[in-house]
Amino acid sequence: MKEVNEVIEELLFYGRKHLDLNDLDEVYLRNLLLHRLNCSEPFMGKIDEDKISSLTVADSLIEDLNEAIKTRDGEVSPLLNVEILGLLTPMPSFVADKVNRLEKEEHGKGLDYLFNLEIANNYIQKTAIDKNIYFKKDFGDNFVEVTINLSKPEKKNSDIAKLLTKEVKEKYPKCLLCLENLGYSGRSDHPARGNIRIVPMTLNNEKWFLQYSPYAYFDHHAIVINYSHHNMVINHDTFKKLLEFVNLYPTFFVGSNADLPIVGGSILNHEHYQGGLHLLPVFYSKDRKVYYKDKDIKISLLNWYNTVIRIESENLDKVVQAASKIFDTWKDYDDETCDILSHSGETRHSTITPIARKIGDLYQLNLILRNNRTSEKYPDGIFHAHPEYFHIKQEGIGLIEAMGLFILPPRLKREMGYVEEVLTSDNSLESFLEKYPDLVKHAEMVKELRAKAQKKLSTVEAKEYIDEYLAETCRNILMNTAVFKDDENGRAGIDRFMKKVGE
Ligand SMILES: [Zn+2]
Asked: How far is ligand 1, taken at its centre, from the CA of residue 125, in Å?
């Protein structure tokens, strides 16, 4: 068993190796940590430097620290870990300056530095993220990616809408995304953020900053956030801000969730974008039809599962102009033959999910047309996952999923285990339903897969059948979200819409 002051020495050595801690600050921090953790003097023995050098995350050191404090004091605050790792991480201004300096040397280098620093200081929950389930499925024309996220809780559309309208009492920090979280010590209903570091930037003359997502869904999953706490909004400036971002950080894509519930993300009350290094499936999608092309600009419809218009040009302003025209037309566009009504009375239903990328000198903006209207038949949304898929996914289809990377709820890990158990058994489905009440909602799925298999499956086969079913369901959900379907009626519909844009 280690003493608290021995773990302090290990943490300081870890800081030198992995968190940019230099000699002078080490002396200072030693005293700070000794005081904070109630130790009168430093540990003078030898620590295992080789072992600490080879660590990639701080988990084992944090465990040792908790154990040492618990043994000595009887209890340990769950918020302490973040505070200590925050102290070991350089100050926010140092990190921001270093990111900018490295980014000037080579695009992507600064963002890499921040990413690795945030893994090393446990802000990015790498150990939890590595446990997530991931697979991809190629359908020939396109592919989808599926993750079962075991590190983040699931939210329903109704809860998200409530958040937007809820009377918010004066509180601090105002929300999870606000800048004032930088260094916040946390409480039972709000995470500690002592170890978060950010990169400030200017987009369209507004102050913004980038931080990484602690529960990354994909490589270098970042959140780009307005300094000011106000609701999500999609307007002409959004297009400009997204394109300016990829101009500053061309190794990243960036997109905005829509500004309406059902078709948006889980946080509607603070303007923010999401981006990262990973190329999502929609980026690989080819043109289905080119609607306009001259020497400066191309506007096309993608051969993707939902309705995506792609604009490409080396001229940023021309992309903004074209996107604004499409958005303005779409906002008020009605087409009853395709079930598209832009408004119910004063309530707006139509919006856009825009995503920007830079490829060499070329700006690319992908506009996913969205509509959140509900009907008697589809009370959760006409262009939302349909009820037959709710057993897999019921939450809103946000930006990342609309682009082909699905984040499925953690409950599925357990529930798909039950499905696997049935598929690898000779017993009747009914005999399992009593044992596993959660299996009831997947009964149709089991019947379908059993009919397809025509035999008892091995564990490996059952897993393949289940993964394929999940991927096909995700693709079908994407088709549900298509405002213009890929059939005769829908193709005529998008032609009429694009003609209207051109008028
Ligand atoms: Zn906020």
From this structure: 22
